[in-house]
Specification:
The chain has one domain. The protein is globular, with a radius of gyration of 22 Å. With about 500 residues, it is mostly helical. Helix 3 (about 40-45) packs antiparallel against helix 4. About 75% of the residues lie in helices and about 0% in strands. It has helices spanning about 1-10, 15-35, 40-45, 55-80, 90-100, 105-140, 140-155, 155-160, 165-175, 205-230, 245-265, 270-285, 300-320, 330-340, 345-350, 355-380, 390-410, 410-430, 435-460, 465, 470-500, and strands at about 180, 190. It is built from 21 helices and two strands. A two-stranded antiparallel sheet has the order 1-2.
Length: about 500
């Protein structure tokens, strides 16, 4: 392995590959920061550019873009409340409140630090423990995927805060939304009302952009009229980066998020959109003082950002060792490998070590480049909050429309985003938490298809979820995770009644 990494750094440190690292990082931050694009579209767009490149250079460019775009998604999530990528949804929970308090530099600093460390840790795991983690990922069948979905959906109880009933209602709405489209088993269309563009179901990107970006635009429009009526009252904005003490305080959170993100990243089909919520929820559960979560807590930014960047290294493990793409982006990367005449698998490490270890070294260099560029740019991006809402609102709306349309090149997605924007604005007004709905939309299809496959395997015997060890552990954890916050709430009420 040490010999391989020496070869890899020798390959990655050539001037051409260093340029690829820098170019991929810049492109990734920009693409990740634009709502609706994200790493999959970015890598797919630049795949043709790599046709004439050396295999190492082409792969380093695309993987640098992949890693950096996962970080870039947090920039728009923090500054305007519109996550640039699906994996940055949880970052909105504490990132935007901290920015609104006048500390966007701190929020961006936490995100950058967590993303960098998460990327480095997952790369080291990729280098050292690929074979071990692949064995775990291969044990996932339909029962395990359903159990993972149950565990993920159990986070609703903690994400709802003190509004458990509202959170549960939102999760049910999200699950009902995932039933729209073609039935994954029978192939019949359901609840599409004869609209062909709904046969694929309601895509995640318009939902995210509507609930977060368009609803934010509507809030900005409301604030414009309020400021004109009451007089402007804008807070001062600080672009100061984190202090050493603040960095030290979030290191344990970053380490936990990185480990969770790497493990979840190795599971095909899971990815950053699940890892960010799991990391956020687990950090909230571990915290002694939960009152600051959702109000700008550093830990609420560090956990999801470490996790979503750590999924990059995790997703590359099954891709490079078995040829199994662990995420939509790695599916594009699989095509890139084959385009350059490389077949993923154990033989890739022996036949083309300079490519494999060059990619590993390129990932480490990308993390360094990402931190440097992010640090230099954070002061500039923080100035976004100084732009008047009357100017910023139409810019965000325009980017949202472009992002929605670019998802499938359909105007239907634009209409969906606008419709969900109105819904999101109403949810905020009536204090309904949107996180449970988004989580249910992410997990719904995974749960339904794998539940039905599992029951076909067991001839409708539900004991399959408890007879397989990994499925039993995940199902049990899901049940405990769902009821434990409710039990804590009940116990607190009893204490209050006893004291009074």
């Amino acid at each position: 392995m040490l010999d391989g990494m020496m070869i890899g750094f020798g390959e990655a440190l050539t001037w051409v590959n260093l340029l690829a690292v820098i170019a991929g990082t810049v492109l990734g931050i920009v693409i990740g920061g634009l709502p609706g694009l994200g790493p999959t579209i970015g890598v797919a767009l630049f795949l043709p550019v790599t046709y004439g490149m050396n295999p190492s250079t082409g792969l380093i460019l695309m993987i640098a873009l992949y890693m950096a775009s996962e970080y870039g998604g947090s920039i728009s999530a923090i500054l305007v409340g519109a996550p640039g990528t699906a994996a940055a949804i949880a970052t909105v929970m504490d990132g935007q409140p901290l920015a609104r308090k006048g500390f966007p530099g701190k929020a961006l600093g936490v995100s950058l630090t967590a993303s960098t460390i998460g990327g480095i840790i997952s790369t080291f795991v990729l280098i050292c423990f690929s074979a071990s983690l692949v064995k775990v990922a291969l044990k996932f069948g339909p029962p395990e995927y359903f159990a993972l979905g149950v565990f993920g959906l159990s986070l609703v109880s903690s994400l709802s805060g003190k509004q458990a009933s509202k959170g549960l209602l939102m999760a049910i709405i999200g699950l009902l939304m995932t039933t729209i489209g073609i039935d994954p088993i029978s192939g019949y269309s359901r609840f599409t009302f004869g609209i062909p563009t709904l046969f694929e179901g309601i895509p995640l990107i318009p939902v995210l952009l509507g609930l977060y970006a368009v609803s934010t635009v509507l809030e900005m429009v409301e604030s414009i009229y309020r400021e004109r009526r009451e007089g402007a009252n804008r807070k001062g904005v600080s672009s100061d980066f984190l202090t050493k003490k603040e960095i030290k305080s979030v290191i344990p959170t970053i380490l936990r998020g990185s480990v969770l993100g790497t493990i979840i990243g190795t599971i095909p089909g899971a990815g950053g959109s699940i890892a960010c919520w799991v990391a956020y929820d687990q950090e909230k559960r571990l915290a002694k003082d939960k009152s600051e979560f959702g109000k700008g807590d550093f830990r609420g930014i560090a956990a999801p950002e470490a996790a979503n960047n750590a999924t990059v290294g995790g997703a590359l493990i099954p891709l490079l060792t078995l040829g199994i793409p662990g995420s939509p982006t790695t599916a594009v990367l699989l095509g890139a490998l084959m385009l350059h005449g490389l077949m993923p698998g154990p033989d890739l490490f022996s036949n083309s070590p300079e490519v494999v270890y060059g990619v590993f070294a390129g990932l480490l260099l990308t993390c360094v480049a990402m931190f440097v560029l992010g640090f230099l740019g954070s002061k500039v991006w923080s100035l976004t909050l100084n732009i008047p809402n009357a100017v910023l609102a139409p810019i965000i709306l325009g980017l949202t429309i472009i992002g929605s349309y670019s998802n499938r090149n359909l105007m239907m997605d634009v209409y969906l985003a606008l419709g969900f924007g109105i819904m999101g604005y109403a949810f905020k007004k009536f204090d309904f938490p949107m996180a449970p709905l988004v989580l249910a939309v992410v997990l719904g299809r995974i749960m339904e298809s794998n539940l039905r496959r599992s029951l076909l395997m067991s001839q409708n015997d539900f004991s399959i979820f408890f007879s397989r060890p990994l499925a039993a552990v995940l199902t049990s954890l899901g049940i405990l995770s769902f009821f434990y916050p409710l039990y804590q709430e009940w116990r607190q009420k009893r204490r209050n009644e006893t004291c009074s």
